[in-house]
Amino acid sequence: MGTFYVENFGCRATQADGASIDRQLRDSGLARVGSPKDAKLVVLNTCTVTAAADHDARAAIRRLQRENPGCKIVVTGCYAQRAPEEVAALPGVDWVIGNSHKGQLAEIIAAAGVSTQIADDECDAHGQPSSPGFVRLASLVNGGPGQPSRANEQPLIFVSDIFAHTELLAAPVFDGSNERTRPNLKVQDGCDNRCSFCVIPYVRGQSRSLKLDRVIAEVDQLVGAGYREVVISGINLGRWGRDLEGGLTFENLVRAILDRTAVEKLRISSVEPMDWSDELIDLVAHSPRIAKHAHVPMQSGSDSVLRRMHRKYRPWHYRDKIENIHRVMPNAAIGADVMVGFPVETDAEFEETRRMIAELPFTYLHVFTYSARPGTPAAEIRTQVPVTIARDRNRILRDLIASKKLAFMRSFVGKTVEAITLSTGGRSREVGDATENRYSDALTDNYLKLRLQGSLEANRWVEAEVEAVVDGELVACLFNSRSPAVPPLSSDREVVCFANS
Is pTM beyond 0.85 here? Predict the structure, then answer.
């Protein structure tokens, strides 16, 4: 049997796309392996949100050439969609398949393995392969009889206008062969905003939503497979439903998942500030089945910078949203994306951002240094911030949020938290010349890493008393745990503490 490996780069939406590609390839008769070194086919599912993301993809291709020179390499995702010729020029690449054709990846590779010239009657109206009559992918990757040599041939490119595509690539992420306990389900793709720095709309296309009944079916499958916490994500998640009939909103989706499925915990991924309605805030705050976690992209605390970015809110609007969330959920994790070094950003404008971050109850940040993306309006602005200055600003914000996060974690010492275990069997940690006792990793409802004494099974709810903060993690004594088959915790806890040593 042929073997494959999918390597994902970038955001949760890309991870979800990778799960769908994985399913396509397995359905085509291939077997997944645990390392790209062992695979006959490697799919690099790329990001292109920054120049560094492009660099990471190119570095991965070079690494594959060194470590597994005989493998077939497919480059797909956002970098492949944005710059297909650039990617195709990289040594070792066999196929470049953009987001426009990602849903047909397995068929394309199989068809290309039969002939580099696909007959017109074997293609649909868009010029992409149709499924009947194509050789199974397993035959290609195994190097079956009659396979033509690809040596000295140019990589095959499958990329078309992303705005002409209305489908949404989605697949359940559950898989009994791994221990992932928090599957990610992409329910929305694309973006109708046009932020001046962002290339994503041009590589992901228009906003489109997974239909409600399909979302419910996917969540039901995840619950049936034993998963207890499900993360819903999208490129512009809060816009879910705007393209569907019936005037559906994101709040309708969240309520439907709670009402129509048995998922024990729903975690909401990033939602833009203008989509954090009072209804959504109230829903997250008062439902015990929704994780107390709000990720609200900020980008800048300066009004003038936000205007140059073409963002649709002002700093005072953003501040109101964060303060409202914190008021009704004082223990919630609140995070944001922040960009530094945007073109023309002055010291005074950066200080506005720094001051807003210092004043608001953030518990973590994703801080990015601006990276010019070809074809975006911001890339055409002549006054670019020197890289050294942008990096200094990045460091200042990272130091600031590190102190805020530490204070937030320390506020839970002596308190009881709920968490889900992330791995089975526990592990040990080297401390100088000594080795700590085994411990298990978990994640709290409010998005903090938790280290529990002893070895526990993955995918179990636990209640634990926090004893200390060590190396950026909470260290806790276990109060109570339950297996996946046991109903939710009651108010009566049986104390089952592990001895500390």
Answer: no
